[in-house]
Amino acid sequence: MLTYLATALPRFTSPAARLLALQCALRADASAYVRLPGGLLRGMRLRGRGELWEELEHAGWLSCKAGRHPHMEAQLLDAAVLAQRAGRRTRARAAQWALSPASAALSDGWPSSVQLTALAVASCTSDEGGSTDMEVLARLCGHSPHQTEELLDRLVAARMLASWQYCQESGEVSWHVPSPAEAGRTAVQQ
């Protein structure tokens, strides 16, 4: 779904709007209609952020409906979103996982740009680490490669990643996750 959104949304779409679009796409019904509860938006720190909905409307990706407070309702306008969806259970699990992927256990309060980068990295991570093309990772997050490098540094500082490196010859970025023992020590320290 991140790959779909990287192509469906304009490059300038903010990380917060991308996170909102991801939840909309994963939670939409068969008619591309979505209703997001206020509690979900509050938990994502997106409640009351009307500019994000406007950003997605301006991009022509959705149309907001007159929802009753505290819910937000929208109709997804991109017909391709319906082709991206697996079964309802799979989408529901993916929507929940996208809120807090196990390997991306960031504490509350991180900016949307860090959260989206953590989600993109987690989606490409196995037990020890992962790798992908830097341009692909940057496109998934709606950033430039340079911004993505800075965000990867922030994930190392947050101890979500143990390290990362970029190979300019191949254009590939790779990373390693902390071992379970290191993750346990970090959790005790926090």
Overall average pLDDT: 85
Name given to the CATH architecture of the largest domain: Orthogonal Bundle
Question: How does the overall form come out from the CA principal axes?
Answer: globular
Strand content: 5-15%
Largest sheet: 3 strands, antiparallel
If you compute it from the alpha carbons, what radius of gyration comes out, rounded to the nearest whole angstrom? Answer: 17 Å
Number of domains: 2
Count up the helices: 10
The amount of helix comes to 40-55%
Which CATH C-level class of the largest domain is it? Mainly Alpha
Look up the CATH topology of the largest domain. Arc Repressor Mutant, subunit A
Structural class: alpha+beta
Question: Whole-Å distance between the termini?
Answer: 32 Å
The SSE order reads HHEHHEEHHHEHHEEH
User: How many strands in all?
Assistant: 6
Uncertain segments are 186-190
Strand arrangement, major sheet: 1-3-2
